[in-house]
Structure formats: structure tokens, C-alpha cells
Amino acid sequence: MSPTITRIESVEFSYPLEDVGTDESGFNIVYDPDSTMERKLFGLRIHTDEGVTGEYVGGNSPGAAQINMFADYLIGKNPLAREKHWSEIKRALRKYDRMGMGPVDIALWDFAGKYHDAPIHELLGTYRTEFPAYASTFHGDENGGLDSPEAFADFAEECLDRGFEGFKIHGWGGSDVSRNIDREVANVHAVGERVGDEMDLMLDPACEYETFGDALTVGKACDEQDFFWYEDPFRDAGISQHAHRNLSEKLDTSILQTEHVRGLEPHADFVAGNATDFLRADPEYDGGITGAMKIARVAEGFGTDVEYHAPGPAQRHCLAATRNANYYELALVHPDARNPIPPVYASGYSDSIDAVDDEGRLRVPEGPGLGVEYDWEYIEANATGSRHVYE
Ligand SMILES: [Mg+2]
């Protein structure tokens, strides 16, 4: 008899981000010693008749709204039939971005690992159990933290001393970013000159630059400093194949796109169209571990690398099962603010800046499933009241 899904439970909770606020645009989170923000996430539990529960904590409210559209379909189904469910839900959500698939698929993988008493990376096929991380910074601020090229260079040097082999800049945002494009260029040079001989450097403007011209100007600075990649430079929001192919033809620095391109086939099309050098995948955004691993194999087939977005236990299992990937993204780090990850791990799992060893490396969790124990008492104690149960 196959196991059966009996009940799915989604609970929204909030947690505080101390010393964090937003920049003038109101969207980028930045260091702000006078501010505490609230962030909301979802705890998801997929219960089965085996007494084994698949769990995942993450996601966002648009994704949770999509789970409403397909959770009933999963009740009574075999939790191990992930490919079948992936295909059915993908079709069912074809009008939407399918962001709801990720948390559910990850929870199904957590179930599978616990059911087979194996970590997910073993079910996928282990390639490695430890990997290098890059320090991925908060956006630049105006509040005495990462507030100048010199501050970024100082922090890059601190990260080098901590053992990191890679450092990624998220520059400044706000409506005057074009007027301040000289500071973006100066930042590339300051960090490049300080640590460029010893670290791989990346720049991620997170689609802030308002013109193609600005993207080109800063990209040429990346060329001069021999950056490892240049990611999501401008305001197409990271989705134009033509624009990035055009940019790529004018630069030496490798382009990393597809963080904001949803779905397996558009990722494949981006590489086939020579519109990116590296591929991006995120198990939470891209249809779970199932979807992220499909993107990894697309990259492998095209002879390029997949760089998993953001930190988390699901990303670690994907990376542990992937040859063609360079780094784990330890985001977001800052000299004076804590990483904005939720305090939901009861098992010692950590993505804070001091989680890396003195060679800048991290390990994949080795327990069954995701290999982490979630602190459901914390999640329930901080529940917002938005709860959905499907049975
Ligand atoms: Mg990015």
C-alpha cells in the first residue's frame, strides 16, 4: 500500500528583523539601527497516514494563495508521486507564476526523506556534502552601515578574513540610483581593488538601474575588475532575453539571469538564446526541489552552471546533488545586522555569517529529509491568525 496524504496545514507567522528598515523606495531592506521590521512566512505541514509529516518553512502570501488552488487535489494522493503532482499542478497553475508549487514540493521531499530514512541529497544522488559559500550583502544603505564604497571594501575584507572565497555586492537602490551611478562604479572598483585578487566578486543591482546605459557603464567596471558574474542589472526586471544578449555581447563579464524567470522551459530558452551565461534556480521559486533540479540538469546539458538562489536547507540539498554549481549564496550579510532568516530551527541549523568554517564552507544537513528540526512552538507562538487546513 502506498502512503496517503491525509491533511495539509499552512500557518502564517511573523518574526522581527532588528536594525532593519527599507530604503527610500520602500522595497529594499537595508540596515537601519533605528528600525525593526516584521517579516511574514509560512509553516507548511503535509500529514500522511504513515504518521510521517513533510515540513517546510518559507514561502510568501502570493504563493500561499496558490496553494489554496491545488491543496485539495493532493488530499488522498500518494506523497511519493512527486513528478505526477508536479506535472498536474504545473498545468493547473498555468495562468500564474506557480510560486505555490515550491513549498509543497519541498515538503513532499522532506516526507520522502523521512519515509526512506535518508537525507534528500542521498535520494537525489550525492555529489558532495560540503561546498563554498559567497557572502551576499544587504543593499547599500545611508545609515552608517554599508553606506560607501569604502564600507563595502572593508566588509569584503572582513568576509575574506572569515574564510569566504566569494563576495556579492547588492548596491544602492531608490529613485536616484541613476544620478548616483558613479557610486555604483566606484563600489565595483573599491571592492575589486581591495580583495579582487583573492575573492570571486559578483554584482547584483537587483534590477535597480533605470537605463541600459547605466547597466553598460557599471558592467564595464565589472570587466575592469574581472568580476565573476553580473546579475539582474536593469529594469526589465530580469526577464528580457534580447536585452541581456545585447548586454552580454558588449561585456566580458559573465551574465547571471533567470532569478526572475519562472518555469523550466523559460530557463532553457534563456540559455538556448545566449541571454545568460549562468542559470539561476531557487527551490522555493522554481517548483520545489523537483523544479530546481530540472533546471540544474538543463544547465548541465548546456555545459554551464546553475547557481542556487538564497540560503536554506532545500538549497543545500540541491547543491549537494549538483556537480555544475560554484557557490552557496549566504544572504543577506552585513557588518552590523543579522541575516534576515527566520529563527525557526530547533536543530542548530544556521545560515548566519558565522556558520561558515574557516575556509568559507558549509555542509549539507545529514538527518532524514531536509535534515532540520523546525521550532513549531515558535511558529505557533508567532502565528498571525491566517491558517489554512485541507483534509
Ligand atoms: Mg539576485
Could you please describe the fold and organization of this structure?
The chain has 391 residues and is of the alpha/beta class. It folds into two domains: 5-117 and 372-384, Enolase-like, domain 1 (2-Layer Sandwich); 123-363, TIM Barrel (Alpha-Beta Barrel), CATH 3.20.20.120. The chain contains twelve helices and 13 strands. Strands 4, 5, 6, 7, 8, 9, 10, 11 and 12 form a nine-stranded mixed beta sheet that branches. β7 (229-231), α8 (241-250) and β8 (255-257) form a beta-alpha-beta unit. The longest helix has 16 residues, at 101-116. It is globular. The mean pLDDT is 96. Magnesium ion binds at residues 204, 206, 231-232, 259.
Q: What's the CATH topology name of the largest domain?
A: TIM Barrel
**Spans with pLDDT under 50 lasting ≥5 residues?**
none
**Secondary-structure element string:** EEEHHHHEHEHEHEHEHEHEHEEHE
Task: Report the major sheet.
Answer: 9 strands, mixed
Number of H- or I-type helical stretches: 12
